[in-house]
Amino acid sequence: MSVEAKFQKAVQIVGSLPKDGPVQPTQDDQLKFYGLFKQANNGDVTTSRPGMFDLQGKYKWDAWKSNEGKSKEQAQQEYVDALLAILEKHKDAGDSAKHIEEINSA
Q1: Where is each ACB domain found (predicted)?
Q2: DSSP characters for the chain?
Q3: pLDDT on residue 90
Q4: Domains identified in the chain and CATH numbers
């Protein structure tokens, strides 16, 4: 039941959520996942902020930068907690309850 195992399971679940399924993370949720994932896997941001015409790149860079200074374990735990919060809201929809159990038992 390590944080690493729960994080890997959460990443797998986020990647497998159907685009038209009952659990739909918002764009803000998706950016949060992105930033925490990058921080957990790469550490602090080392690149310069994308230019003004690359809006998607700027949003993603900002999401990563907002997690600067967090340890790998802290970023992983926050990623897991964020996914569990979304799944709890939709506990009765789709595979949410199953996903919660999978994360908790990882």
Answers
A1: 3-92
A2: --HHHHHHHHHHHHHHS-TTSS----HHHHHHHHHHHHHHHH-S--SPPPPTT-HHHHHHHHHHHTTTT--HHHHHHHHHHHHHHHHHHTTTSTTHHHHHHHHHH-
A3: 86
A4: 3-45+52-105 (1.20.80.10)
Give the confidence band of 24 by pLDDT, cuts at 50, 70, 90. Answer: confident
> Mean pLDDT across the stretch 34-39?
98
Q: What is the mean pLDDT of residues 85-102?
A: 89
- CA 81/CA 60 separation, integer angstroms: 20
The first and second tokens of residue 104, run together, are 């908790």
> pTM of the prediction?
0.91
Structure tokens belonging to residue 57: 């790149």
